[in-house]
Specification:
- The protein has 308 residues and is an alpha/beta fold.
- Strand 4, helix 5 and strand 5 form a beta-alpha-beta unit.
- It has twelve helices and eight strands.
- The radius of gyration is 21 Å and the shape is globular.
């Protein structure tokens, strides 16, 4: 099986830019293709700034060497035709995904594999017409992928198991943390877990039990501290004298009661969304969102450094 040395990143928004850094940081040659008019200078500047932040945080030694491994392709064929792996990260709309998947398929080398960064669509919804679909799958990162290492690998009904295993190995080799799903499910694992928490957060807020800030505080200063280094199963395994089964016996009935409440209609009601947004805008005006995202990324870098 041919080694993966040359990567095409198709779509260079925030996720695609992060992927370009991930692959180039691992020593691979990266070709970026983005069809937005006059976007090249902005993309290059954003990648350069992200690398500078990594250097400042002590998470990267030589930004110039990494940057030198990234080039901009003249067109999609130029990006894909000589690659070993394609990371597609175009706009999250199913018709766009179908169109770009077919275009990639037309130029894909016989050995190359394709992964889509889609955050919720099953690959079978846009790979069905591709002749190379056995080498295509979902490879869903967390934004920004060069800081948050988790990657979900989700095969379609046609994905060859050995190709999915190959990409899991690739993700480990380049420093990402891969999880493999056995089959498709909308939203995969991460967004379904996040969705359950968001559903409960919006319900508690809509029903007036706590402010948005205090709900955020509960996660930030409570649950999130543990979740930064262990998951929910390990958390409850350590929270009862005899482990997970003991915890379930002690607290399972209480959680079942919560589940009964959640069976009611608890949609994200427009009124609650408007109130929560207004509360957030009082804390953080819209014009400060970009600066706060930069702060978030720097905090992530500090956590990464501490975990290392």
């Amino acid at each position: 099986m041919k080694a993966i040395n040359n990567v095409a990143v198709v779509g260079a928004g925030l996720v695609g830019q992060g992927w370009a850094i991930v692959f180039a940081r691992a020593g691979m040659q990266v070709s970026i293709y983005d069809d937005r008019q006059n976007a090249r200078a902005a993309i290059f500047s954003q990648v350069e700034n992200a690398l500078a932040d990594l250097v400042e945080a002590g998470l990267c030694d030589d930004a110039g060497t990494i940057l030198a491994r990234i080039r901009f392709a003249a067109d999609l064929k130029d990006a894909v035709a000589g690659c070993d792996y394609v990371q597609e990260s175009v706009f999250e709309r199913i018709d766009v995904k179908r169109e770009v998947s077919r275009a990639i398929d037309a130029f894909l080398p016989a050995h190359a594999v394709v992964g889509s960064s889609t955050s919720g669509f099953p690959g079978s919804a846009f790979y069905e017409d591709c002749r190379n679909r056995k080498r295509m799958m979902v490879v869903h990162p967390v934004n920004p992928p060069h800081l948050v290492p988790l990657v979900e690998i989700v095969p379609t009904p046609w994905t060859a198991p050995e190709e999915a295993a190959r990409i899991r190995q690739l993700m480990g080799d380049i420093g990402q943390s891969a999880v493999s799903l056995s089959r498709e499910i909308p939203g995969f694992v991460l967004n379904r877990l996040q969705g359950a928490l968001l559903d409960e957060a919006f319900a508690l807020y809509a029903e007036g039990y706590a402010t948005a800030e205090d709900i955020d505080r509960t996660v930030r200063d409570g649950l999130g501290l543990r979740w930064a280094f262990m998951g929910p199963f390990e958390t409850i395994d350590l929270n009862a004298p005899k482990g997970l089964a003991d915890y379930a016996e002690r607290l399972g009935p209480m959680y079942s009661g919560f589940a009964g409440q959640r069976n009611a209609n608890r949609n994200w009601v427009p009124e609650a969304i408007a109130r929560a947004d207004a509360e957030r805008r009082e804390v953080l005006p819209s014009e400060q969102l970009d600066a706060r995202r930069s702060w978030r990324d720097k905090m992530l870098m500090r956590i990464i450094k501490a975990k290392r």
